[in-house]
Design a protein that fits this description.
This protein is mainly alpha-helical and 194 residues long. Helix content is 55%, strand content 4%. The chain is globular, with a radius of gyration of 16 Å.
Length: 194
């Protein structure tokens, strides 16, 4: 895949996340999400923190374990507005420097910037879907976006399971949509399963 591919995927993931947060109201923040023991407010704050970390990494600053707590939005902060701002910051960091042949430092490891962009896109897409489920909105991951991520996602899903971040993959029909296949890979129960 070329540099345009990962940035195009990131743009599509961003669009899907923006669409998913459009209908969130203050009354929705206490809704349960597919993420175990997390309400929507906790999920929004988690996404914001994750996007800030990806932004730091792509802005050629090193990520470290302590950054997670330092970047968490403070109680009382408008979580949706903070997330919108975080999305824009990530896009600016991802597009300000070419990702080709660029390496990023993450917790003492070097990864190609292209991989960091894909992982950020996966994070956004999965949690955007979680938001739609919490808000009881039927908004599957767009087929082209899901298909693009399925091609790069298996190693990230495996690594996440090793760290106990994701559940075991869910079995889906061979006729499952790309959205359902991607969700199942990351242990989420898609709309139509076997």
């Amino acid at each position: 895949m070329s540099e345009t591919d990962e940035l195009s995927v990131l743009a599509d993931a961003t669009r899907y996340l923006f669409q998913s947060i459009l209908s969130i109201g203050d009354a929705d923040l206490s809704l349960a999400t597919p993420c175990q023991d997390w309400d929507l407010l906790h999920l929004l704050r988690h996404i914001h923190t994750s996007l800030q970390q990806f932004t730091e990494i792509l802005a050629v600053r090193q990520a470290n374990a302590g950054a997670h707590d330092a970047t968490r939005p403070q109680p009382g902060t408008d979580a949706v507005a903070a997330l919108r701002s975080g999305i824009v910051d990530l896009l600016l960091a991802a597009t300000s420097l070419p990702t080709t042949c660029r390496w990023c430092e993450i917790w003492g490891r070097s990864l190609p910037a292209k991989i960091v962009v894909y992982v950020a896109a996966i994070e956004m897409v999965l949690h955007a879907w979680d938001i739609t489920q919490a808000c009881r909105t039927d908004r599957p991951i767009p087929a082209d976006l899901a298909s693009a991520l399925i091609g790069v996602a298996p190693p990230f899903a495996d690594a996440g399971r090793a760290e106990q971040l994701f559940a075991k993959p869910v079995d889906v029909s061979s006729m499952a949509t790309p959205s359902d296949q991607l969700l199942a890979l990351f242990g989420r129960q898609p709309r139509v399963s076997m």
